[in-house]
Specification:
This protein has about 260 residues and is α/β, with parallel strands linked by helices. Helix content is about 30%, strand content about 20%. The protein has 8 helices and 10 strands.
């Protein structure tokens, strides 16, 4: 089994991202300074246009050869553009992989337990037609400001979204092309509207596009959104395989010191 991990990165190379790169450097760089690729997993960072740090990004890409950049300005409400572009790129270039795992940079994957979980997923055809992530939910739509998740009723007048996987999600590579085609595929009315797309990438990709492409949604074991109270609690963290949501550089270092790749 091969796994492609895609990390959607904002336009700012902040301390958490630089720490993640440093930790990856420890386990992926050979004595001659070049990147050692795993035969089992591949990792790619996806950026959109940066207003600064372009030179540093080019140097980083030259060393690691794992950065792709898209030609639009980085913004929170452009995450859907980045996710759809990622679907297209992975469908075209990662056909030998079984899964593509999308997450943000403020996450930590315990690699070996994660690969064991993948081996324990239901056999085909279930895994070939299912997106795995947090428990699917039909989240209420926020039509009132101020809110980070506000959407104008003109664009989405409904009270709830379609069922979707929030946070990181695991997609079968065999369905990426179908998910990408669903951007413009009929039907184009009601909650399955295509244009304009939803500004929230998880609700759009794992909700609208998955529904149109007839791809199921299910739970990925070991995935947990962390709170400040539990993210340094060893007894709680022993049960977590993929941690996400606002992990800072100090949290990533703590996880590496405690677990490494285990």
């Amino acid at each position: 089994m091969e796994l492609v991990t895609t990390i959607l990165k904002s336009g700012k190379r902040n301390p958490a991202f630089l720490c993640l790169r440093e930790l990856l450097h420890k386990c992926r760089v050979t004595d001659n300074g070049r990147c050692r690729k795993s035969k089992l997993t591949s990792l790619f960072f996806f950026f959109s246009h940066l207003h600064s740090d372009e030179a540093a990004l080019v140097a980083e890409s030259t060393l690691f050869n794992d950065i792709l950049q898209f030609a639009f300005t980085d913004a929170y409400h452009n995450l859907t553009l980045k996710s759809v572009a990622t679907l297209r790129w992975a469908a075209l270039h990662c056909s030998r992989a079984q899964f593509a795992f999308k997450l943000d940079f403020d996450c930590y994957i315990r690699l070996r337990p994660f690969l064991l979980i993948l081996d324990m997923l239901p056999p085909p055809p279930t895994t070939e037609n299912t997106i795995f992530g947090m428990p699917p939910m039909n989240q209420s739509v926020i039509h009132e400001q101020p809110s980070k998740w506000f959407i104008h009723p003109l664009y989405f007048p409904y009270e709830t979204y379609l069922f979707y996987n929030g946070g990181p999600y695991l997609m079968p590579v065999s369905k990426l092309a179908a998910l990408y085609r669903a951007v413009v595929a009929a039907p184009n009315t009601g909650k399955l509207m295509s244009l304009p797309s939803l500004p929230f990438d998880d609700a759009y990709v794992t909700g609208v596009l998955a529904e149109k492409a007839k791809v199921g949604r299910s739970i990925l074991p070991g995935l947990q959104m962390l709170s400040a109270e539990v993210k340094r609690n060893r007894s709680e963290m022993d049960r977590v395989v993929v941690a996400y949501e606002e992990l800072e550089d100090s949290d990533l270092r703590w996880w590496w010191d405690v677990y490494g790749e285990n």
